[in-house]
């Protein structure tokens, strides 16, 4: 096991009607002048924003709003948010939405007190010194941004989709998590969220670090539980307990718990970010395409954890089978799970076109350098092969 620091200071306020506590929470964490950040309209339509406004007003908190943050958030809206926050002397940011809204809010939090360009934090030119505090009212379990110190923003000029990780200063102060708020999600978004949270665990689970049985067992239990509840939700989307299990899992998948003591991989995410940057598809849908292709490639070079995953998570009986057979059956079962959710595992089908793989690889190389990941370190040629495998997967 590697040395590690596990710092997860976010206060998670979980359950029915918890959005009514937003004003009290903002006040307790020192917010007096708030900017609410929201997405394309779902939180308005559901009445959630009205409830959040009422809660802030009841607590005597001044607020302004930045609306319309789109999926795969872009730098232009971050510049706008920074300007609005500065002009109104905002001291606290409140994200009401999913990963896209939260990540844009985090980028504003990084930029408000910084004299230079906020993008400096994304391209490695600066490290944050003074970050505005933020809180979250979560509406979709997926990205895990409510508990992570990460933010993913796309720079429109060049379509650079970059993920940063500042765990010591960018984790939300609180996250309000009411599973009932997720019942208005279209099934496709629920499925994409499930795919994303599972992948946050794979990125940590597929590791060469040994002596991490406890962390692995936690990861396997969460993966199995998410898959079971996903199938329940497919039949009964309003099942509260299944919604709750999946929502809590999305946080635990990405707040660091499943990576304690391990060297992490993150190849599937890097491969996918190029797809959602260039084709503007949902991140989770891109992962359903990339993960099986990635897994089939690494299983040939380093089957150990793929075998463990196939047996302990996908339920493949190992008796009388070779390692490669177990891997193949595990990957087939995983693809079958994505198909049951209604997601494609073919890049061609996902993008609806003939993707320019050379462009994806060039862009990946520009953003990530010559090698990706650690479970099986991937050259850019390997990445090209994985993209090719994903075309018809
Ligand atoms: O914009 P609105 O109208 O709210 O609609 C959203 C959006 O269209 C809709 N939605 C959200 N909650 C809803 C709802 N519709 C009905 N009812 C509700 N309760 O769902 C759509 C997707 O929302 P989005 O925020 O984009 O989803 P997600 O949480 O999956 O976030 C995706 C973004 O997060 C990044 C991804 O790359 C992508 O940009 N990631 C962020 C990470 C992090 N910060 O730690 C890690 C992840 O790996 C990921 O890369
Ligand atoms: Zn993700």
How would you sum up this structure, described in words?
This protein has 393 residues and is α/β, with parallel strands linked by helices. The protein is 49% helix and 11% strand. It contains 15 helices and eight strands. The strands form two sheets. The chain has a six-stranded parallel beta sheet with strand order 1-8-5-4-2-3, sandwiched between helices. A two-stranded antiparallel sheet has the order 6-7. 5,6-dihydroxy-NADP binds next to α2, α5, β6, α6 and α9.
Using brief descriptors, characterize the structure shown.
393 residues, six-stranded parallel β-sheet, alpha/beta, binds zinc ion, two-stranded antiparallel sheet, 49% helix, binds 5,6-dihydroxy-NADP
Summarize the structure.
The chain is an alpha/beta fold and 393 residues long. Helix content is 49%, strand content 11%. The protein has 15 helices and 8 strands.
Q: Which whole number gives the mean pLDDT? A: 97
Secondary-structure class: alpha/beta
The string of secondary-structure elements, in order, is EHEHHEHEHEEEEHHHHHHHHHH
Unreliable segments of 5+ consecutive residues: none
**Major sheet: order of its strands?**
1-8-5-4-2-3
Question: Cα-atom Rg, whole angstroms?
Answer: 20 Å
How would you sum up the major sheet? 6 strands, parallel
User: How far apart lie the N and C ends?
Assistant: 35 Å
| Helix content bin | 40-55%
Q: Count of helices?
A: 15
Form type: globular
Total beta-strand segments: 8
Q: Which ligands, by name, code or SMILES, are bound?
A: 5,6-dihydroxy-NADP, zinc ion
Beta percentage is 5-15%
């Amino acid at each position: 096991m590697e040395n590690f620091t596990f710092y997860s200071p976010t206060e998670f306020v979980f359950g029915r009607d918890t959005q009514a506590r937003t004003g009290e929470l903002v006040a307790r964490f020192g917010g007096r002048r708030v900017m609410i950040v929201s997405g394309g309209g779902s939180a308005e339509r559901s009445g959630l924003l009205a409830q959040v406004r009422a809660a802030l007003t009841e607590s005597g908190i001044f607020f302004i709003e930045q609306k319309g943050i789109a999926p795969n958030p872009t730098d232009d809206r971050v510049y706008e948010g920074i300007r609005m926050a500065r002009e109104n002397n905002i001291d606290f940011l409140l994200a009401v939405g999913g990963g896209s809204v939260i990540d844009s809010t985090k980028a504003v939090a990084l930029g408000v007190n910084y004299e230079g360009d906020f993008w400096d934090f994304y391209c490695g030119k600066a490290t944050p010194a003074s970050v505005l505090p933020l809180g979250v009212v979560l509406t979709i379990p997926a990205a895990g941004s409510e508990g992570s110190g990460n933010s993913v923003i796309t720079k429109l000029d060049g379509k650079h989709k970059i993920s940063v990780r500042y765990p010591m200063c960018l984790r939300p102060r609180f996250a309000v998590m009411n599973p009932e708020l997720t019942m208005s999600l279209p099934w496709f978004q629920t499925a994409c969220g499930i795919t994303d949270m599972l992948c946050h665990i794979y990125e940590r689970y597929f590791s060469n670090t040994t002596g991490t049985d406890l962390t692995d067992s936690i990861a396997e239990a969460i993966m199995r539980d998410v898959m079971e509840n996903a199938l329940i939700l497919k039949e009964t989307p309003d099942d509260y307990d299944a919604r709750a299990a999946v929502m809590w899992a999305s946080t635990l998948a990405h707040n660091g718990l499943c990576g304690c003591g391990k060297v992490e991989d993150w190849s599937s995410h890097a491969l996918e970010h190029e797809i959602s940057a260039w084709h503007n598809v949902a991140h989770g849908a891109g992962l359903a395409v990339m993960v099986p292709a990635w897994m089939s490639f690494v299983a040939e070079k380093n089957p150990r954890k793929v075998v463990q995953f196939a047996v302990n998570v996908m339920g493949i009986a190992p008796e009388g089978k070779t390692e490669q057979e177990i891997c193949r059956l595990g990957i087939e079962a995983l693809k079958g799970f994505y198909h049951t959710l209604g997601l494609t595992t073919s890049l061609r089908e996902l993008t609806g076109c003939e993707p320019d793989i050379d462009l994806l690889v060039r862009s990946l190389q520009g953003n990530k350098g010559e090698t990706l990941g650690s479970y099986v370190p991937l050259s850019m040629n390997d990445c090209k092969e994985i993209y090719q495998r994903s075309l018809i997967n």
